[in-house]
C-alpha cells in the first residue's frame, strides 16, 4: 500500500509498466500469512480483498466473477454431484456449487489465515461461525486446509463432476512460484485424471486484454493439449477469462450450455442466453497466435 497526499492506495500490477490504484478508505484487516500479504479494506466497490496487491474480489462485483467461473461448468458437466474447489478463499464458489445441486463439495485452500480473515471480514462467502462445521464436513461442504496438488491423491474413486481452480493470477515471470505449480501442465493433467465421466475442469485463466494476455494464451494452449473439448468464457462485465475442459469431445459446447440453462438448479443473476452465445469466442489474439 502507498500513500498519496495522505490517502492510502493499493497499487495493483496490471502488466509491464502498468499499475492501477485502488483508494482504501478503511483498512479492515491486513497481515502477512505464510503465503501472501492479505488486505481487506473498504473501497468505492465496497469491502474488497487484495492478495499481494492483486484485487481478488469486491463486494460490488464478486457475484459477476464467481458466476462467470462456475456457471459454464455447471452447464457443461454431465452431472453435478461431487465438486472439488481449490483456492477461492472467500467460500462463495462452494456455496454456489451447493446451490447448483452438488451434494459433496471438497474445498481445499492452503492459506488458512486468509480463509479465516475472509470469513470474519467479508460480507460474502463463509462466516466465522460456519468454519468449524465446514472443517468437520457436517454438511455438503468440507473445508480442507492443505495443498491442492497433494489433495488430488485423496480424490474419491468415483471422481469429481467439476474441479474448479481459483487462484491469484499465474505469474508470467515466476515459474517457480508457490501457486504457479497449480497452473502448470502436469497439474492440469492430474485434474483431468480425477474427473468422473462427463466431468469438467474449470480454471480462472487470466485477462483477455491484449497487453495482459500472456498467461491466458499459456492456459488456453495447455487446455487444448489436455482436453478434447475446451470452452472459453470471457465475462462481459468483468476483466477476467475462464477456461473449461472436458475429456470427451462435445460437438457444440455453447449449444449444450443453452440447452441446460433452463433446467439448472442454479439460475444465475449475471449470465443469460445472450451471455453464453457472446462470451464463448476467445479473443482474436488467443485464437490466432501465429
Share in helix: 25-40%
Helix and strand content put the structural class at alpha/beta
DSSP strand count: 14
Please describe the biggest sheet, giving its number of strands, its sense, and whether it closes into a barrel.
7 strands, mixed
Shape: globular
End-to-end distance: 39 Å
For the CA atoms, what is the radius of gyration?
A: 18 Å
Write out the strand line-up for the largest beta sheet, numbering strands in chain order: 10-9-8-11-12-14-13
Number of helices: 10
Topology of this structure?
Elements (H helix, E strand, L loop, with lengths): L1 E3 L2 E9 L2 E6 L2 E7 L4 E7 L2 E6 L2 E5 L3 H15 L5 E6 L4 H8 L4 E6 L2 H10 L9 H6 L4 E5 L2 H4 L8 E7 L18 H9 L1 E12 L7 H13 L2 E6 L6 E6 L6 H8 L12 H6 L5 H4 L3
Parallel strand pairs: 8-9, 8-11, 9-10, 11-12
Antiparallel strand pairs: 1-2, 2-3, 4-5, 5-6, 6-7, 12-14, 13-14
Helix pairs in contact: 1-2
Task: Provide structural commentary.
- α1 crosses α2.
- Strands 10-9-8-11-12-14-13 form a seven-stranded mixed β-sheet, with helices on both faces. Strands 4-5-6-7 form a four-stranded antiparallel β-sheet, with helices on one face.
- It contains ten helices and 14 strands.
- By secondary structure, it is of the alpha/beta class.
- It is globular.
- It starts with a strand and ends with a helix.
Amino acid at each position: 500500500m502507498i500513500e498519496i497526499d495522505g490517502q492510502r492506495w493499493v497499487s495493483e500490477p496490471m502488466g509491464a509498466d502498468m499499475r492501477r490504484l485502488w483508494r482504501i478508505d478503511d483498512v479492515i484487516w491486513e497481515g502477512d500469512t505464510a503465503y501472501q500479504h492479505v488486505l481487506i479494506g473498504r473501497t468505492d466497490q465496497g469491502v474488497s480483498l487484495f492478495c499481494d496487491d492483486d484485487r481478488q474480489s469486491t463486494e460490488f462485483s464478486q457475484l459477476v466473477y464467481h458466476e462467470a467461473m462456475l456457471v459454464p461448468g455447471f452447464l457443461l458437466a454431465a452431472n453435478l454431484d461431487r465438486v472439488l474447489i481449490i483456492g477461492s478463499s472467500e467460500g462463495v464458489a462452494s456455496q454456489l456449487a451447493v446451490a447448483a445441486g452438488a451434494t459433496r463439495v471438497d474445498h481445499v485452500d492452503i492459506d488458512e489465515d486468509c480463509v479465516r480473515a475472509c470469513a470474519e471480514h467479508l460480507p460474502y462467502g463463509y462466516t466465522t461461525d460456519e468454519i468449524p462445521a465446514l472443517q468437520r464436513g457436517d454438511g455438503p461442504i468440507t473445508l480442507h486446509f492443505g495443498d491442492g496438488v497433494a489433495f488430488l491423491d485423496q480424490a474419491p474413486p468415483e471422481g469429481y463432476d467439476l474441479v474448479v481452480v481459483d487462484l491469484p493470477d499465474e505469474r508470467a515471470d515466476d515459474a517457480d512460484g508457490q501457486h504457479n505449480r497449480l497452473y502448470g501442465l502436469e497439474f492440469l493433467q492430474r485434474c483431468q485424471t480425477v474427473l468422473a465421466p462427463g466431468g469438467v475442469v474449470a480454471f480462472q485463466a487470466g485477462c483477455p486484454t491484449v497487453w495482459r494476455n500472456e498467461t491466458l494464451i499459456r492456459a488456453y494452449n495447455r487446455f487444448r493439449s489436455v482436453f478434447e473439448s475446451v470452452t472459453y468464457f470471457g465475462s462481459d462485465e468483468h476483466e477476467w477469462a475462464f477456461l473449461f475442459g472436458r475429456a470427451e469431445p462435445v460437438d457444440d459446447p455453447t449449444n449444450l450450455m443453452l440447452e441446460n440453462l433452463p433446467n439448472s438448479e442454479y439460475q444465475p443473476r449475471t449470465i443469460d442466453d445472450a451471455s453464453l452465445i457472446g462470451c464463448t469466442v476467445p479473443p482474436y489474439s488467443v485464437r490466432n497466435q501465429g
